Amino acid sequence: MRMKVVIVVGLPLILMIIGTVGYRWVEGWAWEESFYMTVITISTVGYSELHRLTEAGRMFSVLLILVSFGSLAYCGSLIFGFILEGGIVTFMRKMKMEQQINQLQRHFIVCGFGRKGKAVCRHFALHAMPFVVIEKNPEHIETARELGYLAVSGDASEDFVLEKAGIQKAVGLIAILGVDAENVFLVLTARQMKPEIQIVAWATVHESEKKLYRAGADRVLSPFELGGFQVVQSLIRPKVMDFLNRALDIENEELQLDQILVQEDSPISGKALKDCQFRNSLKVLGINRDGKHHYHVSGNDIFQTGDVLIVMGEPQDLKMFHSKFD
User: Fold this and answer.
1) Strand residue runs (E) in 271-325
2) CB-based contacts of 140: which residues, under 8 Å, 6+ apart?
């Protein structure tokens, strides 16, 4: 589609340049006279000539008319076909989507829109978190756009595709392509393009986990590990699993778990828990600081820039917490 637009715009410009240079060279006219003659020749408006043409000039005019007639007819057919196929609407929608993606800040990139990718996007949408889908399957791309998701068509491991998805402004990337080898290459590419981005990858076989970690993934998920863990924990700690599942469920209106990063300009940075107003409505369960978890949080603990707070509370209190301190 983009190539058709280039042809429709570029071909008339090329004809104008050839005609102007040609009249300048054949007839020796000034540039503005050559340009004027080119315009009236290509457009066939029938205005009088500025100067009497030489034999060579007339032959050049005939060739220019024939070439321009064929070229403009071809451009017209492209435009007509474009309209019949609904191409203009599609093109405008695509341009609008690209503008929306360019405006995103601190978003997530979901690479792959299969069954797992759809589930991830559904949860992002429920949380009202900004994200972009990358998928090379045309049917999956169309499905994503019909659902109202921002989507980029192409191979997620290609640099220019990740650039189109705004990787330089993204905070996280989820690699859930269908083949582990593709996920490994994707993780390697993304890590090189933006070293500080958080990357979560999916491994379908156990042997791929180490490769994904070596490629630069921060966390690797596996169906075998997740399934085995949930089965065992559901047997030996069923009430704990029930509690965690409900607390992590976004649709639970009673109690939820959440996390928040303490930014440098955050009002709680440098403050002790006992001095923060939210301590009565939310429970701080732990602090992740420099990659280490601290579970015994007291009122004297001082929050530092870069801390990740694990908090629990009612959904409305969590929403207020994010709006004030995130």
Assistant:
1) 283-289, 292-294, 308-313
2) 113, 114
3-class secondary-structure state, position 85 = coil
Q: Which long-range contacts (CB under 8 A, 24 or more apart) does 291-295 make?
A: none
* 84 contacts: CB under 8 Å, gap ≥ 6: none
Q: Write the pLDDT tens digit of every residue in 103-140.
A: 999 999 999 999 889 989 998 998 788 999 999 999 99
Condensed to tens digits (0 to 9), the pLDDT of residues 255-284 reads 888 888 888 888 888 888 888 878 778 888
What domains appear along the chain, each with residue ranges and CATH number?
A: 2-85 (1.10.287.70), 104-227 (3.40.50.720), 238-325 (3.30.70.1450)
Give the whole-angstrom CA distance, residue 51 versus residue 54: 9
What single letter denotes the amino acid at residue 86?
G
d(CA 40, CA 42): 6
Q: Output the CA–CA distances (angstroms, integers) from residue 31 to 13, 35, 53, 58, in the order listed.
A: 16, 6, 16, 18
**Would the pTM count as exceeding 0.70?**
no
